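Fold it.
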Amino acid sequence: MRIESFHVVPALPEPLEGLREMAYNLLWTWDEDLRVLFLRLDRALWDSTYQNPVLMLGSIAQERLEALAADDGFMAYYARTYARYKEYLAERTWWDKLHAERPLIAYFSAEFGLAECLPIYSGGLGVLSGHHLKSASDLGVPLVGIGLLYQQGYFRQYLTTDGWQQESYPVNDFFNLPIRPAPGADGAPVRVELAMAGQRLVVQVWRVEVGRLPLFLLDTNLPENAPEVRDVTDQLYGGDHETRLRQEFVLGVGGLRALHAMGLRPAVCHMNEGHSAFLSIERIRLLMKEQGLSFAAAREAARAGNVFTTHTAVPAGFDVFTPELVDKYFSEHVKEMGVTPKEVLSLGAEDPTAATSPFNMAGLALRTAAFVNGVSRLHGEVSRGLLRKYLPGIPVDEIPVGHVTNGAHTRSTVSRDMSGLFDRYLGPDWWRQPDRPETWDGIDSIPDEELWATHERRRERLVAFARRRLMKQVEGRGATQRDLERARGVLGTGTLTIGFARRFATYKRATLLLADLERLKRILLSAERPVQVIFAGKAHPRDNEAKEVMKTVVRFCQGDEVRRHAVFVEDYDLVVARYLVQGVDVWLNTPRRGLEASGTSGMKVVPNGGLNLSILDGWWPEGYAPDTGWAIGKGEEYQDHGYQDQVESAALYELLEKDVVPLFYDRAVDGLPRAWIARMKASMKHLAPQFSTNRMLWDYGERLYLPAARYYAELVADGGARAQRLATWKANVFRHWAQVRVESVEARRPGTHRVGDSFPLAAVVGLGGLAPDDVSVEAYFGRLDEKQQIAAGRSVALRLEASLDRGRHRFVGVVPCDRSGMQGYTVRVRPAHPDANNLLATGLMAWW
């Protein structure tokens, strides 16, 4: 049967035509006036369409639209809102004011959490990506996003009566979402073709307006594709191992190709996690084809403009493929580039010398990005240890991985009630610079009465929301009238409320709070000082261990004794998250230290007045202070996880019993918890600017994006001449490095020195076929640890004093004695070249 398709669009009265434009720009996800405008059209329809203004405009009665067009009050609000929307799009931004350069930055991510009605995200990575785009829009960063448009997206969650997670996969109707086919120069939808393992794959590009910038989403569900490849973009993180590689092939290779098809030539490609790292191979291919560069030179040029952000803290978090599978999908690249499969596979091989070595996407990203970062200070340390295997000769603290601590987009996070309070006391433009400490100075001027009343109003709304959701949950399981009445009566509007909501993974330890049930019940059920906990979260569909953890939590919440004080809200998504972070008193986070890369949920409670109670992991070591929240433990690390759980659960109960609960219920004569409010204010004042995505984007812009763009421009200038010279030099260094050695070291160093002293040092170094200008010779020194190894060492350069015979050279310098204690020193040689941003990434280093 032949079917011809056609597209039906809403018929809007001419005075309301601007609604269509605003519906297709996700600015409404963080501009409260725009959200209110759509709410005023029809509140019930807004909720029933899952807050989707495009579907809403296609569903609303024509009579209602005509009535609104004749309503003077509504039209006045519409006119003001539309004018503000246009003003936002046109105004001069932070980037415009500070930087004349506008290099295009392409931000690649496998998921984006931007709106409830666009379910192409699974958790924290996607929400962070969404907030990244929103702040980039606010700040005017010249950035575009690239992702995948999943036909089913992530799953919807529902629970059985015994608490076991079940999944359903609703199908996205692209033509009723706030997305449109991306038009090419001729106005036709942009499509690109990929040769994927011998098959032709057509990819359609869709465009999402995110404030001032576009997000491009790639879709393979097209009739011209063969059935076996048509479903590549079917499910987020779905399918088998090969499906995962296909998705990452489409994201990295197809994404870069789509940008070029639209005339967009990024100077910087930002790989948000390793899922998109295949773009590096495609970028090398394009540079070889367009500029005639050799493979080695193109690799240097591509690397110069690549940024890699890792979000994982365990080796299992990186995608690993067999070399045979990677070769299967990149055989066309290999053929076109005129290189051997080994040369391409070595870019991601865990051991480039072994033909059967697994291909690791993190290894590919690390080797092909000039700038690499973790997402918190602690995660930077963890990542250096995790990625050390790729650079075994480099001290772990010098592995070239920095950090940019994550943040939260304040306007997307803060409640309308709290935002109104900020308008009055911080000024109506507070949201423009939420990363500036001075923006939050006015927090102290907010009367305690107003701040507490606003916070209590949000807690009341959270409780009402949780009751509605719980009633819906039990109703879906065939509840009796008694069950519904019990659901209607859960939680209390004036009770200390703790929130625990996140992706359910075993390392996040959702059951740490349940370690001693009798003790927990005493805390929750206190007649004078009751406490309540709201849980939410999803487990990966194939993670049965995490599902068992969730089942334990749900069964606890269903117990007759505690059911009014503990609730599990199903189907955790942006809606549930919004109510929680805007209404809880305390945000609880209990990961096993070192395994939470950053975490951003706790950041989102901050501008809403919530306080954090957390293990010192992820971002919290940077945020914690005694007056801003509570720390569980002191950052200890344990080998025995059972003992760790026992110690840290006891510490958690102790904090609740002796600090958190008493502080909340310690009321002044006027009924206000003055000491609690003081802590709220300290948290808001000190943490809100530090953990804003505006600050995060500023860091990326100044420390990574602009340096990467400049470095890339330098290497590709003049037909890639500098890239070619760098590649030739590096090949020479690799060829001769086996001859490099530290032959002897002489130092005048009596047994004891005083702080402030120094001593001279000389080293004779054999360089073989290399020149002294090809290397940096350094004294490496620092405190000796219990194994008599230098810990957290530092280096000082030695200068060339004389060239001797047979490729030998004498270098001299001075070692400072600037710290007390038992110290050690050695001498090392590493490559050095003015056009290389970080030659430690070569892994080449010769030690005495």
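The mean pLDDT is 93.
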